[in-house]
Specification:
single chain, Deoxyuridine 5'-Triphosphate Nucleotidohydrolase, Chain A, five-stranded antiparallel β-sheet, four-stranded antiparallel β-sheet
Length: 263
């Protein structure tokens, strides 16, 4: 019987630094990731949400929200101290949480939680909020061995161009944490990988050609007006291919967050 996947989230920060305990709108906050994105909302009839792989990725894991609003400018030099911060809070505490001690225009947040996972080999994927973008800033992605590590980690965003201000707002998603039940590195190292030409695998080739033909026919019908302009093929969304088989048994269209038991 497989060992249960367990995730412990330890609060490092003092209660006084949590948003729910403050009246100034600042403070650390944690939430299950939301599937919505502003730019996806703005697409015509929200068509971006029809891309289920995007929408599912948006909502996997927890988001830690930035505790404070600030603007910053990098002077282009590699040494630490090259980023000038302007915090939009009178509380000086946040200057101890956010800095550029790595240099090279990297903004670093000291994060308020320690994450531990079981079983042995489980991991923690830490990334910027998927499919969310910020001008002149790029999130750095990390894979953490959370099954044994007793240290907290930092979240880092790299400024792209010197002299161009960047900004974060309090409550804005800072990073997303996706716990992984198995050791992805070991899984890949031990994987059996085969490279083939599609036409040499008749069954898969036939299924692909059927999908391609169905796709081409659908777009041709839409162009000639026999299909509504806002219509779309729902095969992947329904977990089916063009053969019309039953939906895949492990198909997801929305994530249900696990319940957190508070101690």
């Amino acid at each position: 019987m497989a060992e249960a996947f367990e995730i412990d989230i330890f609060q490092i920060a003092d209660d006084a630094l949590l948003k729910k305990n403050r009246t100034d709108g600042q403070g650390w906050d944690l939430r299950w990731a939301d599937h919505r994105r502003d730019w996806m909302d703005a697409t015509q009839q929200g068509f971006a949400y029809r891309c289920l792989p995007l929408t599912i990725m948006n909502q996997i894991g927890w988001q830690v929200l930035s505790p404070v609003s600030f603007t910053a400018v990098w002077n282009g030099r590699p040494e630490p101290g090259g980023v000038a911060f302007e915090f939009h809070s009178a509380d000086p505490v946040w200057r101890g949480w956010i800095n550029d001690h790595f240099g090279h225009g990297v903004i670093t947040w000291n994060t308020p939680y320690l994450w531990k996972t079981r079983p042995e080999g489980s991991r923690l994927l830490v990334m910027g909020p998927p499919n969310m973008f910020k001008p002149n800033l790029h999130p750095l992605t990390a894979l953490i061995e959370s099954d044994w590590m007793n240290m907290s980690f930092t979240m880092n965003w790299k400024i792209g161009w010197p002299g161009t201000p960047v900004a974060f707002a309090a409550g804005e998603p800072l990073f997303q944490v996706v716990p992984l039940a198995t050791n992805v590195c070991a899984n890949l190292e031990g994987a059996k990988v085969v490279y083939k030409k599609l036409q040499n695998e008749p069954e898969v080739h036939g299924q692909y050609l059927a999908w391609q033909q169905s796709r081409n026919t659908f777009h041709a019908e839409k162009k000639e007006g026999s299909v509504a302009p806002d219509a779309w093929q729902r095969n992947y969304f329904q977990g089916k291919d063009t053969a019309g088989q039953k939906a895949a048994p492990d198909h997801y269209t929305r994530m249900t967050p696990p319940t957190i038991r508070y101690e």
